C-alpha cells in the first residue's frame, strides 16, 4: 500500500478537514475509502470530526497505557487481585479506563512456572481498547497459524526462550474475551516506583511473545 | 497437513490455527492515513453508530477468495468489507459508491486502475 | 434462568460438524476433548450477529483448556503446555470421564 501522507503529528488540531492540496488516492482501496468517507458525511451518517475523534481515541489507547496497568499490578497487590478478578470494573473504577462494549477484557498473570501468550487464530482479536491497534505480525497468517501449534519455536523467533519447566498457556481469543498478559516482574526491581517499572513493560510482553525487560537494560 | 481450506465450511480461509505459513515478518510501520481512517470509519460503524457488528466485518472478510484474503492488506480487506456492509444495511448504495469513485478518479486525472 | 450445561472441571468434546456461515470454533479444536476452566456467562450468537440479527438466543461461553498433546499428538512441543479457547455451548458435548482424543 502506498500512501505518502505522513505529515500528521499528534499536535495537529483535532479536526483536520481534507485540504484541496492533499495527494489524490493512490490505489483502488484509497479511492474507496475517500468515496465512503465523503458519502457518509454528505448523507449525514457521520461528520468528519467523528472520524478525527475516533482516530484520536484509538491513538490514546496504546502500550504505554497497558504498561501503567502492569506496573500498578506489580506494585499494588490489592489492585493486582482485583484486576485478575474483574478487569473491566477495576480499570474503570481505579484507573478511569473504559474498555468499551465490543468485548470483555481479562488479565492473566505470568509466573515462574506459567507463561501466557495470546493469539487469535480466526482473525485479529486484540485488547485494542487498552493497547491500541495490534502490530502487523499479530494479524499475520504466519503468527496466527503457528502460535497455537509451536509456541516455543514462535517465541524463540521473538528472542524469548523459556525453560522447559515453565508451562505455556496459549490463549486463542476465539470469542468475546480479550486477554492482557501481566508479564512476570523482573528480578532486581525491588523498591522501584511504578513509573520506573513501566519502562520495562513492552507491548510484546503484554501479548506474551516477550518477557518484561531486564532492569540492567534500562 | 491434510486439512485443506474448504468452501463447504470445513475449514474457512481465515481459520489458520495449526497450519504453517512460515517465518513471521516482525517489521512494523506506523499506520498510514488510509489505514487510520479505515480503522476509524469501521470503529464508528461498529461502536457508536451500531450499523453492523464486528462479527459481520469478520464474516464479510471470511467470504473473500483465497487470493484476496492473502494478497489484500489488512485494511484493504476492511475497507472492502465496509463497503459490502454499508450496502447490506442500506446506508449507501453500490450506485452511489461507484459514481463517487468515478468522479474522484476523474478529478485525480482520469487514471484508471 | 437458563443454567449452564457444563461446570468447571467437566471434560467436554468439541463437535466435528462443518462450520457453516460464521463460526468461532476453530478447525484445529473440532473433535478434541478439553476441560472446562470457567463459565463466562451468556453471549450473543456470533453467527446471527454476523448477518445483522440480534444474536439471540444467547449461548453460554466457556473457557476450555486442551493439552497440546491431545491436539497435536507427537508434534506437541512440551507435554505440560496447553492451549485455551473460548467456546460456545452449542459446540460442546460432555465427554466420558476417561475419554481423550489424541491427534492422529
Please explain how this structure is put together:
The complex is a heterotrimer of chains A (218), B (113) and C (104). Chain A has 218 residues and is of the alpha/beta class. Chain A has a single domain (63-217), classed as Alpha-Beta Complex (Nitrile Hydratase, Chain A), CATH 3.90.330. Helix content of chain A is 41%, strand content 11%. Chain A is built from eleven helices and four strands; from the N terminus they run αααααββααααββαα. In chain A, the strands form two sheets. In chain A, strands 1-4 form a two-stranded parallel ribbon. A two-stranded parallel sheet of chain A has the order 2-3. In chain A, helix 4 (77-85) packs across helix 5 (87-95). Chain B has a domain at 54-113: Orthogonal Bundle (Cyclin A, domain 1), CATH 1.10.472.20. Helix content of chain B is 51%, strand content 0%. Chain B is built from five helices and no strands. In chain B, helix 1 runs parallel beside helix 4 (74-88) and helix 2 (54-62) crosses helix 4. The model of chain B has no long low-confidence stretch (mean pLDDT 91). Chain C has 104 residues and is mainly beta. Chain C has one domain: SH3 type barrels (Roll). Chain C has two helices and five strands, in the order ββαβαββ. Chain C has a five-stranded antiparallel sheet. The model of chain C has no long low-confidence stretch (mean pLDDT 93). The chains are: A alpha/beta (218), B mainly alpha (113), C mainly beta (104). Chains in contact: A-B, A-C, B-C. At the A-B interface, helix 1, helix 2, helix 7 and helix 8 of A face helix 1, helix 2, helix 4 and helix 5 of B. Strand 3 of chain A pairs parallel with strand 4 of chain C, so a sheet runs across the interface.
Give a concise summary.
The complex is a heterotrimer of chains A (218), B (113) and C (104). Chain B has 113 residues and is mainly alpha-helical.
Distinctive features:
B: 113 residues; Cyclin A, domain 1; 5 helices; C: 104 residues; mainly beta; SH3 type barrels; 2 helices
Overall mean pLDDT score of chain C?
93
Helix content of chain B: 40-55%
Regarding quaternary structure, what we see is heterotrimer
Q: How does the overall form of chain C come out from the CA principal axes? A: globular
